[in-house]
Amino acid sequence: MKRRVDLLSCLRCGHQPLERQGPIARCNECGRAYPMRRPGLIDCLPAAADDERRLELLLSPRQWLRLGKEAYTRRLTPPDPDLYETMRSHAGGLLLQIGCGSGRLLDELAVHPWRLRIGVDRRLAPLLRAHRSPLSGAQCLLVRASPYRIPLRDKLIDAIVINHLFSVFKDPSAVVFEAVRLLAPAGVLVCRVERRHHEPLRRLLASAGFAYYRLGDWWVSKRLDAQSEALAERAR
C-alpha cells in the first residue's frame, strides 16, 4: 500500500482504486469525485446525508445517558484488558472500526502495531474531532460513509471492531454482512453489545457464517470457512 486512497473503491461504479488529485479522490472510470476534508479524511457522502438528527431519533434518552456515563467512566479507567488481549493477538494488519465516532477506540487501539487504522462514520463532526487527535496521522484513515456501503475493497480488512451494534445502527444485519464482504479470509470481527442484545447477536453471527466466542464483554468471530480447530472448539 503506497497511498491510503489505494484502499478505496468508487461507490458509483465499483472501480478501484481511486486516484488522488489535489483535495479530491477521483474515480478514473466514471469521474465521480470524493472531497478530502483533511489529509487522511475522505468524505463519501453529500452534506445532506449527515445523520446527527437520525441518530438522535434512533437512540432513546436512556441510551444517550448510558453512553454518556460510559464515556465518562472510560476517561477515569485504564483500557479494556479483554479488548487489549484480543487485539494484541490479531494486530499487524488493517484495522477497521465501523461507527468510530470521534475516534476514542481507534486511539486506544493505536498501542498495537497496525499497518493502518481505518475509522468509518456517517457523521462529519465526530470525524473532524478524530482527525485532530495526536494519534491521527499517516497510520490512520478516516472515511465518512454509510456503514451499509463502505468504499473499501473486498476481503481487505484483517480486524473489524463494532461497538453497540444494535443501539447505534438502524440495520445491524446490514452492518455485519458488510463486514463479511470486507473481512480477509482469516480476518476477525470483534463486537460488543448490551446484555439484552446477546441473543440477537448470537443469531446474527450464526446466520452470517461466523464461529464465535466470548472474551469478557467482547464477541470474537471468524468465518466458518477459515476458522481454526481451536476456534471451533470454543464456539458456542
CATH topology: Rossmann fold
Q: Give the overall pLDDT as a whole number.
A: 84
Task: Please state the second-level CATH architecture.
Answer: 3-Layer(aba) Sandwich
Secondary-structure element string = EEEEHHHEHEHEEHHEHEEH
Q: Please identify the structural class as seen in this structure.
A: alpha/beta
Write down the Rg. 17 Å
CATH class: Alpha Beta
Strand numbers in spatial order across the main sheet:
1-2-3-4-7-6-5-8-9-11-10
Q: What are the low-pLDDT stretches, counting only 5+ consecutive residues below 50? A: none
Largest sheet: 11 strands, mixed
Query: How much helix, percentage-wise, in residues?
Result: 25-40%
Q: What is the number of beta strands?
A: 11
3D architecture notes:
The protein is an alpha/beta fold and 236 residues long. The chain has a single domain, classed as Rossmann fold (3-Layer(aba) Sandwich), CATH 3.40.50.150. 33% of the residues lie in helices and 25% in strands. The chain has nine helices and eleven strands. It has helices spanning 52-58, 61-76, 81-90, 104-108, 124-131, 165-168, 172-182, 198-207, 229-234, and strands at residues 19-21, 24-26, 33-38, 41-43, 94-98, 116-121, 140-144, 157-163, 183-192, 210-215, 218-223. Strands 1-2-3-4-7-6-5-8-9-11-10 form an eleven-stranded mixed β-sheet, with helices on both faces. The radius of gyration is 17 Å and the shape is globular. The model has no long low-confidence stretch (mean pLDDT 84).
